[in-house]
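Throughout this chapter, every protein is written as a compact record of paired, labelled lines. An example of such a record is reproduced below:
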Amino acid sequence: MNILFICSRNIWRSATAERIYKNRQDHNVKSAGTEPSAKVKVSAKNILWADIIFVMERKHKQRLVDKFPYEITNKKVVVLENEDEYEYMDQELIDMIKLSVDPYL
């Protein structure tokens, strides 16, 4: 399964999620951000690659719909509701991501 994690700048939340899941043999994982300043900017290619997309906030889903209306059609997009309050690999963030994502995998 190809999994894409999205946040704003791809520095803390989505990068943490990618790190958590990247070494699982049954998943391919990438992360990206929606902002111009993102470490890795989300692209149409990322969206088409993904079987499931996890976004940290509703605004990220809306940005995907606005910028990639054709690519996002028929894609499973899950809003995790993880606010931008954490740093990279913060234990509370890790716990929240696992609790929200694991049921889908």
Remarks:
- The mean pLDDT is 94.
- Helices lie at 13-21, 44-49, 58-67, 91-101.
- DSSP finds four helices and four strands in the chain.
